[in-house]
Automatic annotation (TrEMBL):
Domain Response regulatory: 6-122
A GO BP entry: phosphorelay signal transduction system
Modified residues (4-aspartylphosphate): 57
One Gene Ontology molecular-function label: ATP binding
UniProt organism field: Labilithrix luteola
Keyword Transcription regulation part of the UniProt annotation: yes
Sigma-54 factor interaction domain segment(s): 146-375
Protein name, as recorded: Response regulator of zinc sigma-54-dependent two-component system
Record keywords, A-Z: Activator, ATP-binding, DNA-binding, Nucleotide-binding, Phosphoprotein, Transcription, Transcription regulation
Length: 484
């Protein structure tokens, strides 16, 4: 049976097939062999699981290794192909690499060289398979309003993937509305705890007198009104994840008890005499600088260090403006369905206004803005007049993020990326949305323009020309300032 550690050796020389089969079995691989193209093609098609590596001769009596490469890649993009060739066919082997082969070796070859090459090919196959698995998990499991192709969001999602497999505590920080709860849920859903509960505690909404009971439970009769036994959130979430939202609001007395639970992994409810072991991953979230509370002795330093093992800082929406169109489109589609309206998109003016607005309420505010616009819209498109005044008025103001250097500096790549994006919008607006004319205005090829639009997650259609009020001359001044 083919597995990720299996190799298919294809050559019409029986002696070479036997030698390579023995060599790779000694290396710990599952080895299958085929005497020619037809047999190998059928083996690739019928294998229950794609081969990790196919090592094939280039020239065979009944077919070409190039054709076999195509069959293997059609079966699975995770299969790596290594081509064996004679000196006289090196140019064809190079062509095989252009078509997707991992590498090639010339006959006769040293076994040490071939072993090292096959080992690297398996490493690449495993890496491609793992990347595909992670992408599928994120597409299937991550909350949709974590959409975003900006560099900050890519880094956040990559971090969420890496830390999802561990059990350590995580502190998620960021302004209100940036999606702290949603990234916490994504961490849970990407982990092996995803089938267990994910429970959220709003630490600022529970009265101090009831907090211990809510978190750790109580025994029947432990206090007035305790008519039944209560497990508490930590025991209800056993095997899963607990998010302590606004963890900075915890009273000092409760902080001591929480610290002990994190250290001992045991809870004791109010009125109980015995402790119960629990297996819960704890995530904390806060929208204020909790370090200031530590300095002011309002938050225990030892608890802070216990929570802040891994930190995830959610960026405000104004620092990832390139994600606004994608988020707005998602919210528009969802709200249109909820309100039973058929709204196909946003006008160029509305997009420009959203692009210029600073979103003090972040993603949550954007969602509310789109929902309001859908409710008010009378046509098939969201226009500038459907947006709140504070948003529609922002379109006439130049974006400060590109027109001046922040006091705390900036990320040059992000600034230049935003500069490029805005110039593309300007060129598209000037050309009436005709991409060939926009490319000519920018002095690039149409292929280059398409690539850049894809990089910035810009729509590549003719529905509506995109635009910006910031002129190219103003934007180019930014580049000059950076050079200075």
């Amino acid at each position: 049976m083919a597995t990720r550690s299996s190799i298919l050796v294809v050559d019409d020389e029986p002696g070479l097939r036997e030698m390579l089969s023995i060599l790779f079995r000694r290396e710990g691989y599952d080895v299958a062999t085929a005497p020619g193209f037809t047999t190998a093609r059928d083996a690739i098609r019928n294998a229950p699981t794609p081969y990790g590596v196919v090592l094939t001769d280039l020239m065979m009596p009944d077919g070409s290794g190039l054709d076999l490469l195509s069959h293997a890649k059609e079966r699975s993009g995770e299969t790596e192909i290594v081509v064996m060739t004679a000196h006289s066919t090196v140019e064809i082997a190079i062509e095989a690499m252009k078509r997707g082969a991992y590498d090639f070796v010339t006959k006769p070859f040293a076994t040490t060289e071939l072993r090292a090459l096959i080992h690297k090919a398996f490493e690449k196959s495993a890496l491609v398979a793992e990347n595909a698995r992670l992408r599928a998990q994120v597409d299937r499991q991550s909350p949709k309003d974590l959409l975003g192709r900006s560099q900050p969001m890519r880094q956040i999602l990559e971090l969420a993937q890496r830390i999802s497999t561990s059990r350590t505590t995580v502190l998620i920080t960021g302004e209100s509305g940036t999606g702290k709860e949603r990234i916490a849920r994504a961490i849970h859903e990407l982990s092996d705890r995803k089938e267990k509960p994910f429970l959220v505690v709003n630490c600022g909404a529970i009265p101090e007198a009831l907090m211990e009971s809510e978190l750790f439970g109580h025994e029947k009769g432990a206090f007035t009104g305790a008519n039944t036994r209560k497990l508490g959130i930590f025991r209800e979430a056993d095997g899963g994840t607990v998010l302590l939202d606004e963890v900075g609001e915890l009273p000092l007395g409760m902080q001591v008890k929480l610290l002990r639970v994190l250290q001992e992994k045991k809870v004791r409810g109010v009125g109980e005499t015995n402790e119960t072991s629990i297996d819960v991953r704890v995530l904390g979230a806060t929208n204020r600088p909790i370090e200031d509370d530590v300095k002011a002795a309002k938050f225990r330093q030892d608890l802070y260090y216990r929570l802040n093992v891994i930190r995830v800082e959610m960026p405000p929406l104004r620092k990832r403006r390139e994600d606004v169109p994608e988020l707005a489109s998602y919210f528009l589609d969802r709200c249109s369905r909820e309100h039973n309206k058929h709204i196909r998109g946003l006008s160029a003016d509305a997009l420009r206004a959203l692009d210029a607005y600073d979103f003090p309420g972040n993603v949550r505010e954007l969602e509310n803005i789109i929902e309001r616009a859908v409710a008010l819209a009378e046509g098939s498109q969201i226009g500038l007049g459907d947006l709140p005044h504070e948003v529609s008025g922002a379109a006439s103001q130049p974006s400060p993020s590109l027109m001046s250097l922040p006091e705390d500096g900036c990320n040059l790549d992000d600034v230049l990326g935003e500069l490029e994006r805005r110039l593309i919008l300007q060129a598209l607006d000037r050309s009436g949305g005709v991409r060939t004319s926009a490319a000519k205005t920018l002095g690039v090829t149409l292929r280059s323009l398409r690539y850049r639009m894809q990089k910035h997650a810009m729509q590549d259609d003719d529905d509506e020309p995109l635009s910006t009020d910031v002129s190219p001359s103003e934007l180019l001044k930014v580049a000059a300032k950076i050079d200075d």
